[in-house]
């Protein structure tokens, strides 16, 4: 067997696994709806178990493994971020609020002037 044949066999099993995952998640939603009279704790536990099993099955697929690797790399990158201090966040928020207020006043004034000019040109005053 060559590499492309082996890859196709793996992808057909992956397709089957994704089908099982979809059925599990749909069953969790349907079960939560059907057993709406039962205890919310029991229903939530059932949904959590179904999602966990679906996640474990997804981890056995190529896309699931690559998604997990991406999440690990993203977590590593988030740790490298230099987050602003509380003071910097407050100052930046204040600047954004002031600029937003100024721009809204500018646009309101421009809208009023244009409304007045159109009224002059058309002869219709509101």
From TrEMBL:
Subcellular location: Membrane
Pfam families from the UniProt entry: SecE
Main localization (coarse): membrane
InterPro entries in the cross-refs: SecE_bac, Translocase_SecE/Sec61-g
PROSITE patterns: SECE_SEC61G
Transmembrane portions of the chain: 16-35, 41-59, 95-118
Keywords: Cell membrane, Membrane, Protein transport, Translocation, Transmembrane, Transmembrane helix, Transport
Family the entry assigns: Belongs to the SecE/SEC61-gamma family.
NCBIfam families: PRK05740.1-2, secE_bact
Protein's UniProt name: Protein translocase subunit SecE
Organism of origin: Colwellia asteriadis
Lineage start: Bacteria, Pseudomonadati, Pseudomonadota, Gammaproteobacteria, Alteromonadales
